[in-house]
TrEMBL record:
Coiled coil: none annotated. Gene3D superfamilies: 3.30.70.2580, Met-10+ protein-like domains, Vaccinia Virus protein VP39. InterPro entries: MeTrfase_TRM5/TYW2, SAM-dependent_MTases_sf, TRM5-TYW2-like_MTfase, TRM5/TYW2-like_N, Trm5a/b_N. This is tRNA (Guanine37-N1)-methyltransferase. GO terms for biological process: tRNA N1-guanine methylation. Pfam families: TRM5-TYW2_MTfase, Trm5_N, TYW2_N_2. GO terms for cellular component: cytoplasm. GO terms for molecular function: tRNA methyltransferase activity. Keywords: Cytoplasm, Methyltransferase, S-adenosyl-L-methionine, Transferase, tRNA processing.
Length: 326
């Protein structure tokens, strides 16, 4: 059957396959083809293939799909994977147990299955979890060629935002100075640094900052990353007028930090501002707040208005990419 494939020279095949696999871009039901000195690696989402790879249509054979949780259950359960941990979100304990048993019986490489026991809470944005299988809550998650060590019981991390993080990281240039105001374990910081930027990340969660430093070393970018534990508002004096790019990924509360963002911004700075608003006007409140904080010191230009995902009934998680020009 015809399928989108990354075409690469055979000698680069294994490196390419590994990178695509780390980003969960290789489907389980299609074979890799070797033909005429080229390797054709099927991809499930051609639009998410990193820059630098050639994507073509090519004939590839199907293969027998390993047992999945859906094969075992007879329905498609909702779950997320973080490394060798699987996260489910079920209010019914019996249904959660049924899904966990099917996940373990499937071909998924899983050591731990957790069920969400609370919403994100507190200043450090962590959850409570019910452990259904295994006991370890620490794992190594891979996305778009980066590795992130983390403990889901002690830090906040959402694998659902991988595509959005990659979208922002692709805008980063090697000569930039970037600042992530709510950095967590580094899902923005690390890919920014891998693209050659000098990056500062702050977070009130000391554990997350420890992981951020570890992840900088793990990805070989420790010389380009500064990790600071504490409230970002306490770093303004040292980094005033410093940033070419700011990430404000703290939906519900980012507006409270806009004065700090403006103080951190250099003469020409892009802010990636994340917000959660009603679907009737998802972008207006954020844009109004940014203008109120930045004007007239800066000209404010909204470059992108993007719906990231549905957050709740009639509520959207959105991003505004806004350029501030002094």
């Amino acid at each position: 059957m015809k399928a989108p494939c990354v075409r690469v020279e055979r000698e680069r095949g294994e490196t390419t396959r590994r990178e695509l696999a780390e980003s969960d871009l290789i489907p389980d039901d299609l074979e890799i083809v070797v033909e005429g000195g080229w390797l054709y690696v099927p991809v499930s989402a051609p639009g998410e293939v990193p820059n630098g790879f050639e994507v073509v249509e090519h004939d590839v054979p199907t293969r027998e799909t390993p047992d999945t949780p859906a094969d075992i259950l007879g329905f498609d359960p909702s779950y997320e994977r973080l490394g060798d941990i699987v996260l489910v979100d079920e209010d019914d304990p019996a249904r959660a147990r049924e899904i966990a048993d099917a996940i373990v019986a499937s071909e998924l490489p899983v050591k731990t299955v957790l069920n969400r026991a609370s919403k994100v809470k507190g200043e450090t944005r962590v959850r409570d979890w019910d452990v259904l299988v295994g006991e370890q809550t620490e794992t190594v998650h891979r996305e778009y060629g980066c590795e992130f060590s983390l403990d889901v019981a002690r830090v906040y991390f959402s694998p659902r935002l991988a595509t959005e993080r990659h979208r922002v990281a692709e805008q980063v240039t090697p000569d930039e100075q970037a600042f992530d105001m709510f950095a967590g374990v580094g899902p923005f910081v690390i890919p920014f640094a891998k693209r050659g930027a000098q990056v500062v990340g702050t977070d009130v969660n000391d554990v997350a900052i420890d992981y951020l430093r570890e992840n900088a070393r793990r990805n070989g970018v420790e010389d380009r990353v500064t990790a600071i534990a504490g409230d970002v508002r306490e770093t303004v004096s040292e980094y005033e007028n410093w940033a070419d790019r700011l990430v404000m990924n703290l939906p519900h509360s980012a507006g409270e930090f806009l004065d700090t963002a403006v103080a951190l911004a250099g003469d020409d700075c892009v802010i990636h501002y994340y917000d959660i608003q009603h679907e009737d006007d998802p972008f207006g409140p954020g844009e109004k707040a940014i203008r109120a904080a930045a004007e007239p010191e800066y000209d404010v230009t909204v470059e992108t208005r993007r719906e990231v995902r549905s957050y709740a009934p009639h509520e959207l998680n959105v991003c505004l990419d806004v350029r501030l020009t002094r």
